[in-house]
Write the structure tokens for this entry.
Amino acid sequence: MSLDGVFRRAFGDDEPTHAGSGWTTGVLAVALGVFAAGGVLCLHMPDLLTTPDLRGRYPLPLVRGLIQALIGLAFLCGLLSALSRRRKVLGVTGMGLALAASLAGGASVEIAGPVSSRLALGLDWFLLNLLLLAVIFVPLERWRPLREEQLVFRPLWTTDSVHFFVSHLLVQVTTWLSLAPATILFAWAARPEIQGAVKGQPLVLQVLEIVLVADLTQYAVHRAFHVVPALWRFHSVHHSSTTMDWLAGSRLHLVDTIATRGLTFLPLFLLGFDERALGAYLVFVSFHAVFIHANVRFRLGALEPFLVTPRYHHWHHASAPEARDRNFAVHLPVLDRVFGTRHLPPGAWPAEYGLGDGRSFPESWLGQTVAPFRRRI
Ligand SMILES: [Zn+2]
Ligand SMILES: [Zn+2]
């Protein structure tokens, strides 16, 4: 059984989900309860569960306030859901998680001794990024939906959540594997005079240059992942999504993520861009990559010819034969124009997404992760 089936069975809640049914508050209660419990876990085991690069930067009083608010809101939503819904499972789960988080010390758990581990899981990164993306994209997809009937919890959302969870938990390892080849193997190729000139430019100009350089590399790597059969085995995981939304972009094989990031970073490293400009690009790319997969009918107006939109990238995921191996650009549509790979029927959206080869594809995270290493997918 797929993870989806497990989840539906676990909650066993097939009652109506309309406004006032206690469904939304129930789901919110569970989600907030998970965030609250995760936050308390991070306070208990910061050595093991918090990203070393981030943990020193947290304004702790604010983080504690956030955890306290999450506990309170999870309990309140759980109570409201349980009062208005015949099946209490969601509400009770939310209240249970809030209660467990409180009993485990809540927001006031003391951090014992100095936190000094240099290798840890990124539970904090997972929780913060998921919270931020959900707060932005769930309302956005409700406000301007492309497919109105599509639910937040659509088929295989659990598989994509596991992809999101694992890639965030292993953030330190994947980041290291992405950066190490450039910094260790290619340090000899760096030219201080070039790096000095690049770094001396205004930051805004550097960010624009990073977008161009990064997308030129991404275009080449992305296209290679489509046309080289051994690479397509890994990238086909990303294209196996038959539903597009803000979570769908997370479905990426770790080999795909590390290879693409590592190769994209190489020219940026050699050119020696300012760290602040690289940081700004990272923030942009994390939101833009999620946005272009989202279930939103969003127009970017005058920006559309210059920046990849959801409609543009949705065509990259279309299962129709004429859309195959098209729209490789991640940020700049002009690249597909230049290289003759653009496909954007005026005003239209794809009818269906996915591999379109009629074959079944593994549905679980584990199945999708091991599939490329097997002889047959
Ligand atoms: Zn692709
Ligand atoms: Zn995609």
About this structure: The pocket of zinc ion (ligand 1) is lined by residues 222, 226, 235, 238-239, 316 (CB under 6 Å). Residues 171-373 form one domain.
